[in-house]
Amino acid sequence: MNSNTYIPDAFIDDVKSYIPEHLTIEDFIKSCQTPLKRAVRVNTLKMSVDAFESECAKRDWIITPVPWCDTGYWLERPAAEEDALPLGRTDLHLSGCIYVQEASSMLPPMALKDTLKDAHTVLDMAAAPGSKTSQLVAMLDNEGFLVANEYSSSRLKALSATLKRVGAHNVGLTHFDGAVFGDYMPEMFDAILLDAPCSGEGTVRKDADALKNWSLQSNVDISDVQKALIKSAFHALKVGGTLVYSTCTLTPIENQAVCQYLLEQYKGLIEVQSLHDLFPDADKAATEDGFLHIWPQIYDSEGFFIARFKKTGSQAVSEPKNKKGAFPFSPMPTKQSATFIQQLKKQFAINALPGEIYIRDKEVWLFPNVDNERLLHSVKYSRIGIQIGSTHKNGVRLEHEFASCLGHLAKQNVFDLSSEHAADYFNGKDIRLQTPTTHTGEVILRLRGASVGLGKWQKNKIKNSLARDLILDGMLITW
Ligand code: SAM
User: Which domain holds residue 418?
Assistant: First the structure.
């Protein structure tokens, strides 16, 4: 029980006005004061769920499956281990195999699961720090094209770091007020997630001060932003496409009322797709309208709200716009790309790359495959795909992201790091080899089966190629 949790009386009075009859305010308050159980999601781009389960069994980590997410688990570690080594410093985390994510926050991407099977182009309109973006990328298995947008510059950096850690290569990052997408990219997306900025009333179990600045007026103010964003999402969605709207707040002002606004603005052009059967037991949180209103005491989680819509008709945007900006990339010339692929074939037995190779000056980029060229040219991207190398006189020198995102394609020149090697590697040191090697050139380093980086074979060691900004701060890592 966290007795420091700040819950203002005015907030409680407000909640009393809309809490459903089958729930009590006493249980709600108790639950707000109870710390959250930690949950993680297995990043299936790097590790299978089966492999994760057996890794947990080896280390006496207790896991309980999250019923609504096939890759989610509540996780408990032995207390002594937890004190000695934060989860973020463990091999499974450093290698990008797991992502710490609150269980109810796994729901919005899950509500898009069926759509994603056929979706090529997806927009995550308010994406940082990237929990749900990384979940969407894993659900798409790095295929298709996902535009991840974030308005705040500092949070955009966090989003970019998340995507690097999990090995995403099918993402275009943008940095706009999400309200522009309807005008700039009308009807371009098969699926859109709008995990909207909100008053965060549902997050009080994680952050005891979450309600410090709470006021009814701030709920109303944020709902104006949410309405502008949901309108933009409607226009950016293709007819037949699916929109999921979610918040981590409880007030109907930011939830049901925003959905109602959408349905009224575009009467006959959009309909609710009920979520009452999204998972067994979803009924407990389903509203009459088919939304999920997750109160913290229902599933012992954070509070959340999720709504799903299908667009059934079109309405032209009044003034479609174009926000092009410079596009300093060009496809790598055929001869040069054939030579590059030959280099990859020889070193790693990789015969093809999953995307289009582009160049900008000396930089070599792998762009996701797009089904519509306009996607690349309608808006200015902060980044598209990943930089896999840079050209120099003897060919292409590979970058870290080549290994962390595409290393699983390699069939040779791969080295499995032991725990001791991995500690050296993440601390920027070279890896000593027991017996001298005859291999030469670049080598992909793997940890627990996940590709984590690049090194260079040298006689008695593998030279560490980890960039300075990725090196840990000297804290000793032991497993
Ligand atoms: N989807 C994220 C995740 O799962 O990690 C969490 C998103 S958080 C609820 C909402 C985000 O919207 C914040 O990062 C905030 O900076 C961003 N934001 C605020 N106003 C915005 C706007 N007008 N357009 C786009 N993003 C906005």
Answer: 413-470
